[in-house]
Amino acid sequence: MSATTIQALQKAGKLPSGLSDKQAALLQRSLDRYSGQVSDKVLTAILDDFRDKLKTATTMTDVNDMRGIMADLQANIGGSESLAKRLEWSLRVSQEVAAGAGTYLNQNLTAEAVDEYPALELKRIYSRDVPRGTKDPEDSWPARWEAAGGELIDGRMVALKDDPIWQALGDGDGGYDDTLGNPFAPFAFNSGYETLDVSRKESVSLGLIGENEHADPAPIDFGTLLKISNRSFRVPVKILS
Amino acid sequence: MSAISITVTQDTANQALFELMQSVTPARFAGKVGPALVNETKQHLGRLGKNKQGYKSTRFYENFSVFWSPDNRGVSVDIPPAVVNGRQVGLGLRVFGGTITPATAQMLAIPISAASYGRVPRDFPNLFLLKMTDGRAFLCQRGQRGQQRAGGRRGKAGQSSKPPLEWLFVLKKSVTQDGNRDVLPSDKRLLDVAANAFKNS
Questions:
Q1: What is the value of ipTM here, to two decimals?
Q2: Distances (CA, A) of A114 to A104, A211, A232
Q3: Domain limits, chain B
Q4: Within an 8 Å CB–CB cutoff, is residue A110 touching chain B?
Q5: More exposed terminus of chain B, fewer Cβ within 10 Å: N or C?
Q6: Which residues of B142-170 are buried (b: 16+ CB within 10 A; e: fewer)?
Q7: CB-CB: which of B27, B42, B64 is closest to A194?
Q8: Measured between CB atoms, which of A99, A125, A197 is closest to B35?
Q9: Is there a contact between B35 and A10 if contact means CB atoms under 8 Å apart?
Q10: A169 falls in which pLDDT band (50, 70, 90)?
């Protein structure tokens, strides 16, 4: 990814302006390997699946089996409209992750801001028709939070910015396979949850940090984005939130 | 398209806040106030209701990121334009209103049904143009054969031999949209949030 791409993402409103050279370099190095690969992965997966099924179909002699394969292809791969929807979905996820990366940087923009707002809260910002956890309470975000090693404080999902819980959430610790691998929201596909800054005063009252204790920023490592791109996922994996 | 910028300056703060501001560096002030303003703006966008027509939400406001940054007057909150349906869209049009004209096409295609809401004509492969005698133009497609008509103007429901028309888009040379300041938190609300963030930190 070139500096122009970063500028384009800034122009598209997905990254904050005024990144430091170090932040821009980190972002550039990681997004270079990430950008566009979500779509590539989807395309590759779909095409591989298509090739496999065609290969199987050519060796078949039973017409009913062939019909079954064709029906399977139709259902799972579909026509151009289905492919377009999958790509559209994939691109949307890419954009959401890029926007999340921008917010992540913004939440750690200056030492003063981290000192004033040392923690984050995972909170629902956007509603969903079928929120995660509706069908299976173990799938809810509070359940995921606890499965990832987090503690609910007064029912809230709050932790310091440098707490490993954020990466654990993104990694799907606890056995969740719909997460995106990043230590920032969105942590999973189609999530309506975002992270909000929590002030020092509130962080102290919640027992997260001492009144005069030093607050560290998140350990920004955009190499984690590489893990996402290397994960072979199908889209859509789970259209819940 | 320009970004929206909400700026809190020391000129508009009350005296007590002004005195407090004198006791901190600009970077400290921005660090105290910026994240609070972003929190408020994000939550406000999240609370905006569904579309007026009751159609399935396109999650329009989720496309916008909210960032804070220190500036020479204090702190600013920026909501840069976002790419929606392949087009760069700014929130400013929703807030302040304005006239939209097509950038590349000859006409704007305005969705007029639940099926086309949040979509663009290229999402519908079998569209055709219908021009009315009064000059209006629509993009339509044929529905499924056997589908019942919604109304009875052109025959009894369910008795048509042709599939019904689906009216998806109306074509217009330009559209003037009213502004809606409520899309963003009010100035007073933002100032209250800024003052509280400063005083309570």
A1: 0.72
A2: 12, 14, 35
A3: 4-97+178-200, 100-177
A4: yes
A5: N
A6: ebeeeeebeeeeeeeeeeeeeebebebbb
A7: B42
A8: A197
A9: no
A10: very high
